[in-house]
Amino acid sequence: MPELPEVESVRLALEPVMVGRRIVRARLFRRDMLAWDARGRGRAEAGMLGGDRVVELERRGKQMALVGESGRSLVVQLGMSGQVLVLKAGSRSRLDHVHARWVLEDGTAVLFRDPRRFGGLTAIDAGDALERRWAGLGVDGLVVTGRDLHAALGGTARAIKAALLDQAVVAGVGNIYADESLHAAGIHPLRRGGGLSPAECGRLAGEVRRVLAEAIDAGGSTIRDYRGAAGDAGGFQSRHRVYGRGGLACLTCGRTLDSGTIAQRTSVWCRGCQPALQGL
Known about the structure:
Blueprint: H1 4-18, E1 23-28, E2 34-36, H2 44-47, E3 54-60, E4 63-68, E5 73-77, E6 83-87, E7 98-104, E8 109-113, E9 120-124, H3 129-134, E10 139-140, H4 146-153, H5 160-165, E11 170-171, H6 175-185, H7 198-217, E12 258-262, E13 265-269
Parallel strand pairs: 2-9, 10-11
Antiparallel strand pairs: 1-7, 3-4, 4-5, 5-9, 6-8, 7-8, 12-13
């Protein structure tokens, strides 16, 4: 599933294309891919900001929002296989599984494609509706501090890996970057989250920020479906030190990497670099 770096990479690519430009046509090809906030249903074109000028592209965790000058916004969630692709004026696309298309005033087309349909779009009303929608998310992973993390863990008995996957704890971190950050911080994924000291939380938060930033610089990680706005694959997967490498040698100490299931997700760690406390 695309995580914060993949969504941020798409947002950064879309910013110079969409911000400041009016959406002259918006078309939805599958009605079930567009949800509505509490105001109820309306015209699909209006919900997709048809006729509106895009003034900002915001992101919180794994969610991105197109914000129109009207104050309305449209939340885009990539889900497992979602892609937002840009086609220059005059270009033709023969892609399948395209569920929505926006045409900008300069002729550029932006497509939302999602073969597995776990992602989607949500039309948000003007005012503070977007902030209300995002109120349940934790601090964004790019800015999380040790103090934020320690407070969010709040003495939880959950394994720290499971806690990191909870978007109310840290927004934007998923399976890939949780494994990578825990390894870099030297913290075993089965450690009780509430048992981490303030110093350990500070170290882990620092590694979360660093790993996410480096992944953004590399265009994200492409494991299966993820593609950037230009259709290109990310490059950070070649830098993964533990994720997806169970049974191979740790790139730091050489020990064989362990793997197991934590919070229904396959997790990988190194017993040498991430020692477990007795009783965890």
